[in-house]
Amino acid sequence: MAGRNEETLEHLALLGNQNTRYKFEYDPGILEAIDNLHTRDYFVKFNCPEFTSLCPQTGQPDFATIYLSFIPDKKLVESKALKLYLFSFRNHGDFHEDVVNIIMNDLIELLDPRYIEVWGKFTPRGGLSIDPYTNYGKPGTKYEEMATYRMMNHDMNPETITNR
């Protein structure tokens, strides 16, 4: 395997598009997938340090870094589509816990990954930060066991937080 060619990428509408439109309302339809050309286990990690959404009650902005890690099966998420999808939360009102679960559910539907986790590190509002974490391992596989283990141990060695 030498790499990808135009034929394998022709179904992508966003990558390379110079007329990108940024949606300001939540839209999971923005997400696009590409074929995973590798059969071994490996992690793909995305960090979005400029994520924003709205408090559903007050309409005030919430800011976070969203950490997304997954072990792909047959599909990968196309990164520009992921960026635009995350941007679509800009005017979406939901609680922090809901946001990370929505992101994970949309990516499970798109990718059917072996394993996935989403962690939101929200900046404080009113003196309190909320950092919801969720994960999923494909049922009946070693990834389900991995999800259980990682859930129980996800915050055993927390990073030093310097931006809040």
Structure description:
- The protein is of the alpha+beta class and 164 residues long.
- It has a single domain (24-152), classed as GTP cyclohydrolase I, C-terminal domain/NADPH-dependent 7-cyano-7-deazaguanine reductase, N-terminal domain (GTP Cyclohydrolase I, domain 2).
- It is built from four helices and six strands.
- The strands form two sheets. A four-stranded antiparallel β-sheet has the order 2-3-5-6, with helices on both faces.
- Strand 2 (44-54) and strand 3 form a beta hairpin.
- The termini are far apart.
Descriptors:
two-stranded antiparallel ribbon; globular; 164 residues; alpha+beta; GTP Cyclohydrolase I, domain 2; single chain
Q: Give the amount of beta strand, in percent.
A: 25-35%
Shape: globular
User: Which CATH architecture is right?
Assistant: 2-Layer Sandwich
The fourth-level CATH homologous superfamily is: GTP cyclohydrolase I, C-terminal domain/NADPH-dependent 7-cyano-7-deazaguanine reductase, N-terminal domain
| Count of discrete alpha- or pi-helical segments spanning 4 or more residues | 4
Q: Give the CA-CA distance, first to last residue.
A: 44 Å
Roughly what is the average pLDDT, rounded to an integer?
89
**Into how many domains do the coordinates divide?**
1
What's the CATH first level?
Alpha Beta
Largest sheet: 4 strands, antiparallel
- Poorly predicted ranges (pLDDT <50, ≥5 residues)? none
- Along the chain, the helix and strand elements come as HEEEEHHEEH
Overall structural class, as computed from helix and strand content, comes to: alpha+beta
CATH fold-level label: GTP Cyclohydrolase I, domain 2
| Rg, alpha carbons | 17 Å
User: How much helicity do the residues have?
Assistant: 25-40%
Order of adjacent strands in the largest pleated sheet: 2-3-5-6
Catalytic activity: 7-aminomethyl-7-carbaguanine + 2 NADP(+) = 7-cyano-7-carbaguanine + 2 NADPH + 3 H(+)
Organism: Planococcus maritimus
Subcellular location: Cytoplasm
Binding site for substrate: 77-79, 96-97
